[in-house]
Amino acid sequence: MKTTSLFARGLVAAAAVLAVGSASASIATWTNWTSIGTNSATGTMGGIDVTVTRLGGGAINTGSSQTVCGTNYWTGTAYTNGTLSNGPAACEQVALNDAMTLRVTFSQSVENLYMGLLSVGQPGVAITYDFSNAFTVDSEGAGFFGDDQTNGVVGAGTLGGGSLTMREFHGVLRFTSPVTSLTFSTNPNENWHAFTFGHVPEPGSLALAGVALLAAAGLSRRRKAA
């Protein structure tokens, strides 16, 4: 009876892990930026290293970038109106104001990549982000500085992945293909706007945890029986 009970508890625990994995599929792990300079920025997104490199144009706006809390601009519902239940990490942002081109590289392939965008453009100043990778607008709405009444206008772009023209846009983009490297350009200049990256871990890692619990329960059962 005791061994059966132990095995049953193992099954319940494994099922709980898998259930949590299903329920938390929309919880993103956002980048913790550790260093931001005029030509590059680095951070970690869970166990994934994130590196931003300036390829051309102006410099990264270090004055409006944040690696620790000053003001948290990632507020409002703009970031949770889509498939995510949590917005970007408070006060973590890479800021831009010049027109420029950046490359973002990840230390491993990312299946569920999201990009948080903060205050891109103004009602009278349209800013276009042009991407090398295909994307969809996952969420947008009212943010710290207002709301883009156009909701962002998708275009063909010139880098192969499409473009998004914004006027005070706050929201989240989702890149549907596995991503190890992403290039994007911004144009024209603006006061400042900011971005960050996040991802949703693959459910496979949680499934493995469930299998491990089942295996442990089975091993314990055999030992008890012996």
The portion of residues assigned to helices is 10-25%
Q: How many domains is the backbone divided into?
A: 2
Structural class: alpha+beta
| Unreliable spans | 1-25, 205-225
Write up this protein.
Residues 1-25 form the signal peptide. The chain is α+β, with helices and mostly antiparallel strands and 226 residues long. It folds into two domains: 1-25 and 202-226; 26-199, no CATH class. 20% of the residues lie in helices and 38% in strands. The protein has helices at 2-23, 203-225; strands at residues 29-30, 32-36, 40-45, 48-57, 94-96, 100-110, 113-120, 127-131, 136-140, 153-155, 162-166, 169-175, 179-187, 193-199. The strands form two sheets. Strands 2-3-4-6-13-8-11-10 form an eight-stranded antiparallel beta sheet, with no helix packed on it.
